[in-house]
Model the fold of this input.
Amino acid sequence: QVQPLESGGGLVQPGGSLRLSCAASGSRFGITVTAWYRQAPGKQRELVASITNSGITNYVDAVKGRFTISRDNAKNTVSLQMHSLKPEDTAVYYCYSGGWGQGTQVTVSS
Done:
């Protein structure tokens, strides 16, 4: 059972940057994709970005050009670098890698 652990959330002003990290413990056998999702208040959880074990990435249109997902297989971590943050990026961000993490809050506000 994989238990992802997210870190790196916080409060940032519009236009600012944050870097989220997902560290996955446990057996990763059979896990081929790690993804970041987010859930804003009153909204459904949505996929933000994903990355396969071979490094193929996918992004939702709303974050293309602003967010970058990357992985470090040696450290079993996946990161989400976020630039040019907007108030609408405010949400709890979750890592999924064979299981769900607890989430980390990202708030974009002046």
The CA atoms of residues 32 and 53 lie 5 Å apart. The beta strands are 3-7, 10-12, 18-25, 33-39, 46-52, 57-59, 67-72, 77-82, 91-96, 104-108. The chain is about 0% helix and 50% strand. The radius of gyration is 13 Å.
